[in-house]
Amino acid sequence: MTASKAGGLRLVVRRVIAASPERLFEAWTTSSQVQAWWGPRDVRCASAEIDARVGGRYRIANALPDGRVVVIAGEFLAIDRPSELVYTWHIEPGEAAPERVTVRFEARGAETEVVVIHEQIADPRKRDEHEAGWSGCLDGLVAHVSGDARS
Predict the structure, then answer these.
(1) pLDDT digits (tens, 9 = 90+) for 62-101
(2) In the chain, where are the structural domains located?
(3) Tens digits of per-residue pLDDT, 22-55?
(4) Cis ω for the linkage preceding 93 (within 30 of 0)
(5) Measured between alpha carbons, how far is residue 142 from residues 24, 44, 76, 96, 134 in Å?
């Protein structure tokens, strides 16, 4: 765990996935695909709205096992197709300052290393929650691009 340049904590999660950067970028920026794979284990993506352009917004609703729905929303700050996305991250409703997420898709032969850099995290508890959440999301992304049904 490290402090980010803009303040707060920084988290880096990596996963090598048997898919091209183009395939993974598409899965990350298409609403119907995000809805199919997004969310940590036991969380279902109830809806995903993605406007993947600089200045465009996204809104993802996570249906939790206890019936609550948590909405993550933000704005795309930078897009370099198919290698990088940068966007703000904010839980609705909430008064906390937005966090920042950078997702890199780095080709490694027939595979791609997905690097998620989540910054400006307020405290260690939230950082740990994000780490578990990103690990679960990447599990879902692996299952999605491989054609396996997610359990």
Answers:
(1) 999 999 999 999 999 999 999 999 999 999 977 788 999 9
(2) 2-146
(3) 999 999 999 999 999 999 888 999 999 999 999 9
(4) yes
(5) 9, 16, 23, 31, 12
The Cβ of residue 93 has, within 10 Å, a number of other Cβ atoms equal to 6
Q: Give the ranges where 48-123 is alpha helix by DSSP (H).
A: none
Return the closest-CA partner of residue 142 out of 42, 60, 37, 65. 37
Reported for 44-52, long-range contacts at CB under 8 A and 24+ positions apart, including other chains, are: 51/76, 52/76, 52/79, 52/85
Is 77 within 8 Å of 67 (Cβ atoms)? no
> What is the C-alpha separation between 134 and 1, in angstroms, rounded?
15
Superfamily of domain 2-146: START domain (3.30.530.20)
The span from the CA of 85 to the CA of 74, in Å, is 12
